[in-house]
Amino acid sequence: MAIIGIDLGTSNTLACVFQDGQAHLIPNPLGGFLTKSAVSLLEDGSILTGAPAKERLITHPDRTAASYKVFMGTQREFVLGGQRFRPEELSALVLRQIKADAERFLGEEVQEAVISVPAYFNDNQRCATKLAAELTGLKVSRLINEPSAAAVYYRWHNPEARDGKLMIVDFGGGTLDVSIVDCFENIIEIVSIAGDNHLGGDDIDRAIAQAFCEQNHLIQTTLTPQEQSELLWQAERAKLSLSPPGAEPTTLTLETSSGVFHLTLDQEHLAQLCAPLFRRVEKVLRQALENHTSDRIQQVVLVGGSAHLWVFQDFLTRLMSVPPIMAADPDRIVAMGAGVCAGIKERREELQDIVMTDVCPFSLGVGTYSHKHDQEPHMAVIIPRSSMLPISHSQRFYTLNDRQEALRFEVYQGEDYFVAGNLKLGELRVRVPRGPAGSQWADVTFTYDINGILHVQVKASGGDYQETVILNPNLHLTDQELAEAMERIRQIQLYREQANAQPLFEEALELFRHVDGFNREALSRALENYGLARDSNDRISLRQAELELEATVNRCQRQLSQIPSLFIQDEPDEEDFWLDEEEEGEDDDV
Per its UniProt record, what Gene3D superfamilies does this chain match (predicted)? Predict the structure, then answer.
């Protein structure tokens, strides 16, 4: 049974499988590889995912959600048509479709996956990602950092590349990750990582939208939800049109109840709008370099949808002594790297010589008091950030008060000196014999594995012993809670399970208006059967009804095409062919 690799992105989700010595991207039923990370609740209670859902952000913003990945691991809820969804539930709905696409492509059941996550995702966010997969019945065999996945594929796909240090800059729709990678023959060692979980192409869209409002003296929050969604869509389209070097200026137009407003944007203006965001990019780059002190970087490789943006490439070229290069397929390289890692997990012969190591993205430690008069606990780091995984470290801690009966250890993740600024992961308590302050102790051992799972052992001087795997109670469900959550996801009818179901259904309705006689009766029967099958939740019946509807639509269209036309069709203009056939239906998200 195949293990697939999944890039669960802010803007797009992709899947890949390693077969026949190659990493094969798994197509969705629309024929593309990029499935929009968007979910929309239709009026009949069914769910639409992917590109059709993304389009409904404008027309039905109250029923549609996108860019929810940045809220993974939080208590944030999205309300779609009156129903509440947590980010991991929305992700699960997209993953369910990806799983179905993979099973259709492979012809077998898929139960296991390697899933990529931003390198700077904390424990809560990683746990939420695993939970999203569990809700679809997928076992996560490994979570791999996105730039690490990109590095694996880049190195595997370019075996002739010379050994040395690479910097992978992964600039996506919602996150920025930077990794420094040391490559030596078949060994890929991640030596430093840094990132910003709230910096990506979506922020550029919002900056453009804000500039539009400022120029036109509009207050964005006073626009209707539809107008706000339309403005962000216009901003995204403007950004995409300005992505190539030397792109011509573009104009945004927004029609509101109070008038029609415009903003003309060129690359110079876009660079000015991006300047505050790019300063944050520079901060992340410097942090990655600070964590890495040895040999100079030989190559800077750009991946992620937002790396297409010329003003971003120009900024990095001006900033760095090593000119950046764009990876082939920057939107897809993370998914293909996850696919290669899935192949490694399957022990594929072609990959048996590849060795990859990763690092801990955040420091791990416990809260301690140096003196009994300390006002608040500070962080005693046990595993420093950028430590190579897997790793195990121990540290001894002593009692602070006379006749102290126990030692309580709160476990934290983060870089702040005081624990209040870090993320609490859990706590343990051990008993110690009573005695003078400093006479009793406990050894705390942290073991952090390649999947980012933290094991904590505490052994006290009196013999008391505690051991646990740190689990976030807000994100780790009991067996019963997981079963209930999975059942809820299953009961939500996934309208997009048939790739072209929505377009086909609408096409049949439109065709019904133009046919008569036998054709109208045949279409009526096919539409009725399709509706009954859709309501039954029986996938086999639904697929049969869809095929029947598709055949009826095709037959009616052939007969209509035989009717002589009274019009001479104009020759198409060259500018009508602006969309690359290979990428039809797949915009590059920046």
Answer: 3.30.420.40, Actin, Chain A, domain 4, Substrate Binding Domain Of DNAk, Chain A, domain 1
